[in-house]
Amino acid sequence: MKTRDMNQDWIGTAQTLSRALPYMQRYTDATVVIKLGGHAMGSDAAMEEFARDVVLLRQVGVNPVIVHGGGPMINAMLDRLDIRSEFVGGKRVTDKATVEVVEMVLSGVVNKRIVQAINAQGGMAVGLSGKDANLMICDQTHPDLGFVGTPAKMNPKLLHTLFERDMIPVVAPLGAGRNGETFNVNGDTAAGAIAGALTADRLLLLTDVSGVKNAEGEVVTELRAAQIREMTASGVIAGGMIPKTETALDAIAKGVRAVVILDGRAPNSVLLELFTEHGAGSLIRPDTVPG
Question: How far apart are CA 267 and CA 172, in angstroms?
Fold first, then answer.
C-alpha cells in the first residue's frame, strides 16, 4: 500500500509538471519582477520555499528580479536603537539617523537573507540596492518626509548584465540622490519603477492579502486599469491597497504587460500564478492591450 501511494504521488507530480509545460514555454526569456514584502517573508521554511520557486523560474528560462521590503525589520531595529519613527500619509519620515538604519537593515540583514536562501537552493543571487550602478536615481518626494525618494531616472543595464550571466538580482529599495544622498524608497514603488524600466512581462506584488476585493469582499481575479480607477473613486479600493494599485497602474503605463497582487504567504504562490491556468490573486491588465 505504501509503495502504491508513493507511486500515485509521483504520478500526480508528473502530471502537474506536464500541465505546467505550456506556461513554462510562455514565460521563456520573460522578465518577472517580484516584490517580496516584509510581512510576506515569513519563517525560514517559507523563505526556503520561496527561494526554491525563484530558482525554478531561472531554471526554466525566466529572468526573475526580486525587490524586497523590510518594514517590520526596520521598525524592530529603530526600537532597539531608541530612534523614534513617524509616518505621514503612509510613508516613513526619514531623517539622517533613520535612513542610516534603513540602509543597514535593507541592504544588510534583509537583502543577504534572501540572497543566501536563493543560493542555498542552487541559484546564483546577487544582492544590490538602487544605488548600485545608479540603478535608481531619485528626487526627494517631499521635504516633510526627509530622505524619502521618488524614482526619477532608471538605469537597468546592470540587471541585463546579470541576466546574461544567469544571475538573480535581489534589490533593496534604496536610491541615489543627484547630490550624493541616500533615499529610502517605498518597496512597491521601487518594484514598479524597476519593472517599468525593464518593460517586464509581469510584476508580482507579494503581500499579506489575497488580492483586490470587490464591494462584497470577494477577490476579483482579473481587472482592467479602468476598473481599478472606478473602484478607487467609489471607495471600494481603500487604505493600504491604494498604493499597491497605484503602483500597478503606473507600471502598466510604463509598458509592463500585467501586474498581480497576491498573498505571498500562500505556499508556492509565484508558481501558482505563473504556471497554472487559474493563477493566484488579482491580475491587472491595461485597458486595451492584451497581455
Answer: 23
